[in-house]
Amino acid sequence: xxxxxxxxxxxxxxxxWVRSGFSKGTVAGALTFFPPDPPLYTFQRVxxxxxxxPDDDDDAVDDDNSGDExxxxxxxxxxxxxxxxxxxxxxxSRKQSNGDNxxxxxxxxNRRQPDGQETxxxxxxxxxxxxxxxxxxxxxxxxxxxxLKDATDASSQITYxxxxxxxxxxxxxxxxxTITALKIxxxxxxxxxxxxxxxxxxxxxITPHTKTILYSHGNATDIGAMSILxxxxxxxxxxxxxxxDYSGYGSSGGVPMEKNTYxxxxxxxxxxxxxxxxHEHQVILYGQSVGSGPSCYLASKRQNIGGLILHSPFxxxxxxxxxxxxxxxxxxxPNIDRIQKVTCPTFIIHGKKDVEVPMEHGLALYKNLKEEYxxxxxxxxxxxxxxxxxxxxxxxxxxxxxxx
Length: 404
Known about the structure:
single chain; alpha/beta; Rossmann fold; two-stranded antiparallel ribbon; 14 helices; AB_hydrolase_fold
């Protein structure tokens, strides 16, 4: 979570709020979501004959902003008339897009722009109103272009191959299962598709009791940056892992907004149950930092989920910035209220030295969780917000706790 409390920033937020039709979601999105740009991966498009297809520029689209999903009116977060209730049909099975972690990593490295420092300096020199307006317009234009491209790909039976940015991330650990690149969608309201990676155990190791972790990552990261950890989790815990990018992140369509994260996790959860587990109790939700928001949301709605893991979670978005409730009208991700409705075993992980989201947030969530669903929490000595899995010993203890 990030906020600059200088007067220009406050003026910019007020301007954005008015310009968006007094949309809480638009303002909260400007404060909350910061997807890596460029992403730490790409999806290589592959036609039905197995030939690689050229990619195009997601930002090369006209300036017509009519019909943007970002301009939809705000609906209360718990209003299921907009998000919709859903029943899961486990008899149907959708075709998966096949992919692998081949060594064809040059494509993404060649896409990286050499003028990143120049771009950052230009953004810093802009006043906050201009910067926020430019960013908002860019994301909306990109979302419209991706929706059209992904719909065309789906109708043309295009599949995808995962290309991590190995230059930045380093080599992936050995993984004996399959890594499948997916575009899940379309989302009924926005028509966007969500980029995801499925880390699936070999068929010989899958049993009727095999769990699938649905992983909602933190803020300034994406499924490329998470690839090493997901390989380790799947291998060490003998489970499948599906990690996805929120709307507006990585190769996902849409724009980053609180409401869209709820749409995203609902869509991906349906896909997992229909295509992988066929039973809700085989799914474990994992939410890291900002990912605790959509994870708590879904866990509070579905009664048969197998478990919930909250990693460095917060009580609500605005409570990270200030304990005052004067700005409650702009609050997002009210985890502190939703945790009381969770009806599955819940494991909370929080670093004792976390200064971004202090451990008091994790403690408050634990205390508000119904006692029968409390799994022994892990308050991690000497660790902060993003370093719980750092180092050989840290990874070893982390994986041991998850597997336990």
